[in-house]
Amino acid sequence: MGLATFKGGVHPFEGKELSMDKPVTQLKPTSGEMVYPLSQHIGAPAKPLVKVGDEVLVGQKIADAGGFISAVVNCSVSGKVKKIEPRIMVNGSKVMSIIVENDGEYRAVEGLGEDRDPASLSKADIREIVKQAGIVGLGGAGFPTNVKITPKDENAIDYVIVNGAECEPYLTCDYRMMLEEPERLVGGLKIMLQLFDNAKGVIGIENNKPQAIAKMKEMVKDEPRIEVCELLTKYPQGGERSLIYAVTGRAINSSMLPADAGCVVDNVNTVMAIYDAVAKRTPILERVVTITGDAIAEPQNFKVRTGMNYNDIIAAAGGFKTEPAKILSGGPMMGQSIFTTDVPVTKNSSSLTCFTVDEVEKYKETPCIRCGRCVSACPEFLVPVLMMSECRKRNLEGFEALEGMECIECGSCAFICPARRPLTQAFKEMKREVGALRRKRAEEAKAKAAAEAAEKGKEDAKK
Ligand code: SF4
Ligand code: SF4
């Protein structure tokens, strides 16, 4: 039988050799400002629980979840709250943030890091611990994990899938953690399986990581509920929909959740964070980031405290060899171009990729030659060439009719296009506009229904 995979996709240059053989380096700042944005996740911003002048400890909850889809923020150092003000995030937006002056003493809340037996906990206990630990999807999505592990019907979940594909070129933080701390991954997965009685655990890893596959197979050989699934190396194999299809043969679309296909999917470092929270009484205080690209002197992975400034991490990687022409938060396929590195590491920032050449600037767009390569590459079976025509006409309805909202913004079509058309960028913008249009339509429908109900009420009163 062949390796598990999905239909479509592309094979971009991997670039992983820059950092994949270097052990993860721990960085711990001794002083300076730590910045904790209140939006490091999808959903409502967190609400501050501290004020300027308060003393804070490592592991202390400094902001509470601001709604059902939201996440707690915990402090990763000890010190004093210096300011609460908007600060620039890696995506360029300004977000209200708690600024703590790190005293370098790392005084911690009571019990932090102490062992706890997961078997002694109920399912509700585990979900609450994950919530209070502020865990979100560390692969970049930032979706609150406690929501993900609380589906409507937990008995309908038959797969807990660990996303170890790491298909994004240049990134190696998941790979290194599977090699260096596999016990945390297996421990976290076993805790997740405690929540889902009918599920088996599957760790999906692309076959360009044979050492990680061998390590994880060795680790789970005596675990009857866990197996390793070897995936064909192909981008976007680590996309949630692609991974679910590769492992289970089930397809989901934008109106469905993985749970609708009986799956819960979490990235390697997220599962490790679940282990830390439940078995080691440690919320998210640090994460692993890849600092890489041909502009970086010594590309490698670092384990860093959340809130730390990216400039300090770049300096620890030897700084820039050459002034970068482009810096991406994330990898070259799905990463976002950034204009400053004076930004904090957040829970969902996985990497900086720094290039000496800006490939987008280097090659100019030419007319479409109708080659159809974008269609073959699309993992969602869309027709990017036609979607692009609707984008150019700003025809929102036409874009919707072509199922444009199913686009996962993976970048495969733009990568393969010989005419260098900015397909993905156009689709991202169009999706935002269609999303706004759909919200407007929903509000209008609601207002119309309310007006009709009021009218009917008046007529009934007259009778
Ligand atoms: S249309 Fe969207 S989902 Fe399809 S290849 Fe392009 S970016 Fe990916
Ligand atoms: S890959 Fe580019 S050139 Fe080919 S059909 Fe698609 S948009 Fe046109």
Describe the structure.
With 463 residues, the protein is an alpha/beta fold. It folds into three domains: 16-102 and 110-279, NADH-ubiquinone oxidoreductase 51kDa subunit (Rossmann fold); 288-362, Ubiquitin-like (UB roll) (Roll); 368-463, no CATH class. It has 14 helices and 17 strands. It has helices at residues 123-132, 145-148, 173-180, 182-195, 210-220, 240-248, 268-279, 310-316, 359-362, 373-377, 384-393, 396-401, 412-416, 423-462, and strands spanning 25-26, 32-37, 47-48, 55-56, 61-64, 73-74, 79-88, 94-102, 159-164, 200-206, 226-231, 263-267, 286-292, 300-305, 326-329, 336-337, 351-355. β15 and β16 (336-337) form a beta hairpin. α4 crosses α7 and α11 packs across α14. It is globular and about 65 Å long.
CATH architecture of the largest domain: 3-Layer(aba) Sandwich
Structural class label: alpha/beta
Number of helices: 14
Strand order of the largest sheet: 1-14-13-17-15-16
Number of spatially distinct domains: 3
Ligand inventory reads:
iron/sulfur cluster
Q: Mean pLDDT, as a whole number?
A: 95
The count of strands amounts to: 17
The Cα radius of gyration reads 23 Å
Envelope shape = globular
For CATH, the homologous superfamily of the largest domain is named as NADH-ubiquinone oxidoreductase 51kDa subunit
Q: Any low-confidence stretches, pLDDT <50, length ≥5?
A: none
The largest sheet is:
6 strands, mixed
Spatial separation of the terminal alpha carbons:
72 Å
